[in-house]
Design brief:
The chain is mainly alpha-helical and 255 residues long. Helix content is 68%, strand content 5%. A two-stranded antiparallel ribbon has the order 1-2. InterPro entries: DUF5958 (IPR046002). It holds the Pfam family DUF5958.
């Protein structure tokens, strides 16, 4: 999720933007991107530490009529307590929009509760008045400046380039396997042994695993150096990696 989209969601929670605005934007996404936004919403909600009651209300409104439910259980850790609450979310394509709408309303409910506590001493931009266009412009400008600084930072540049190359290699491997499957399709099948499944899984995910490990290290370094929350560090990383990825796709287009 881009920062611009996140601003839109917080504007909705503040009553500045309508639910229809966000819903229309969501509808334009493909199913994969819609699923990504569902997970993005759970991360945003997790930052607000929803109460048991808020989770129960959201659970009651979650769709249950999907043709083939693909459910996940999302846990929201409590920073000041050992307990955590969970919410089951239906990811079936035919109800993704309803699941998103439920999460959007849950975010607004948890945000408005937290806003009462934070508004007098707002440090995080989430709790600033986003009806002020200058405030929004400053948020976006500061974010872009940070992305540029990290992109140009010699201490991180090699790591980000490596992450981009690993993602690119993973995509190429996946595309090649799809082509091989299509080319070798003969209509005959055989039972797959457990060892074959394990070997194929390791081979298919070798680049992703390396990227995951390296990304985790970089995320922690960015969080510490720039005093970023983990989810904010990930957001910045995605933009920086995206720039490096475009350089791979378009050789010669650097800086």
């Amino acid at each position: 999720m881009s920062l611009e989209e996140e601003v839109m969601i917080v504007e909705f929670a503040q009553g500045i933007r309508s639910e229809d605005d966000l819903f229309d934007h969501f509808r334009q996404l493909n199913d994969d991107d819609k699923t990504d936004r569902i997970f993005d919403m759970t991360r945003l909600i997790g930052e607000l530490e929803p109460t048991n009651f808020e989770i129960e209300q959201a659970s009651a409104n979650m769709p249950t009529e999907s043709a083939g439910p693909v459910e996940i259980g999302v846990y929201f850790p409590r920073k000041k307590r050992l307990t955590q609450v969970s919410l089951r979310i239906d990811l079936a394509n035919d109800v993704l929009e309803k699941s998103y709408l439920t999460l959007l309303r849950l975010f607004k409910a948890t945000y408005q509760r937290q806003f009462v506590l934070e508004r007098k001493n707002a440090v995080d931009w989430w709790f600033q008045d986003l009806a002020d266009n200058n405030a929004v412009a400053n948020i976006l400008t500061n974010h872009r400046a940070l992305v540029e600084e990290i992109y140009q930072h010699p201490g991180f540049r090699g790591e980000f380039a490596s992450i981009a190359k690993l993602h690119h290699a993973s995509q190429m491997l996946r595309a090649a396997k799809v082509q091989n499957v299509q080319a070798s399709a003969s209509g005959t099948y055989h039972f797959v042994r457990y060892e074959e499944i394990v070997t194929a899984s390791i081979e298919d995910n070798k680049y992703n695993y390396a990227a995951f490990m390296l990304s985790g290290s970089v995320m922690r370094a960015l969080s510490k150096r720039y005093h970023l929350k983990p989810f904010r560090a990930v957001q910045v990383m995605q933009e920086v990696v995206g720039r490096h990825t475009r350089e791979l796709d378009e050789p010669g287009e650097t800086g």
